[in-house]
């Protein structure tokens, strides 16, 4: 049985890019990772025998707005509760660091919304809906 540990640290850019793509999340450029990762408020990685196999981050302004992003687990390690482990670490951090009037959001792919619901996240529609801006081609 593999040995899993957690690490509270922002992943290196190459690790971040690899975990995103290998776990089925959309690819990001090296430039985007280099610019964005230093702005992480909180990050957790799951290591298997010292190698990163999962991650999650919280981004935002640190006071009014927080967003859970980049929750990813490599396919070979899915189904072992590692996504739940990542979210438990994130939830504990949120509980300690988000002010009473802070707003925490995330965009959930189905069926991952069931995981997030276990940590108090609720669907905001129809009152609010997620929207995205894409750079025109």
The gross shape turns out to be: globular
Tell me the CATH superfamily: Gcn5-related N-acetyltransferase (GNAT)
Could you tell me the mean pLDDT? 96
Question: pLDDT below 50 for ≥5 consecutive residues: which ranges?
Answer: none
* Gross CATH architecture: 3-Layer(aba) Sandwich
Largest sheet: 5 strands, mixed
How much β-strand is present in the residues?
Answer: 15-25%
Rg (CA only): 15 Å
Number of helices: 4
CATH class: Alpha Beta
Amino-to-carboxy terminus distance: 48 Å
CATH topology: Aminopeptidase
Record field, number of beta strands: 5
Helix content: 25-40%
Q: How many structural domains are formed by the residues?
A: 1
Strand order of the largest sheet: 1-2-3-4-5
Structural class: alpha+beta
In short:
By secondary structure, the chain is α+β, with helices and mostly antiparallel strands.
Protein described:
The chain is of the alpha+beta class and 137 residues long. It has a single domain, classed as Gcn5-related N-acetyltransferase (GNAT) (Aminopeptidase, 3-Layer(aba) Sandwich), CATH 3.40.630. Helices cover 28% and strands 24% of the residues. It is built from four helices and five strands. The chain has a five-stranded mixed sheet with strand order 1-2-3-4-5. A hairpin with a 4-residue loop joins strand 3 and strand 4. The radius of gyration is 15 Å and the shape is globular. The N and C termini lie far apart (48 Å).
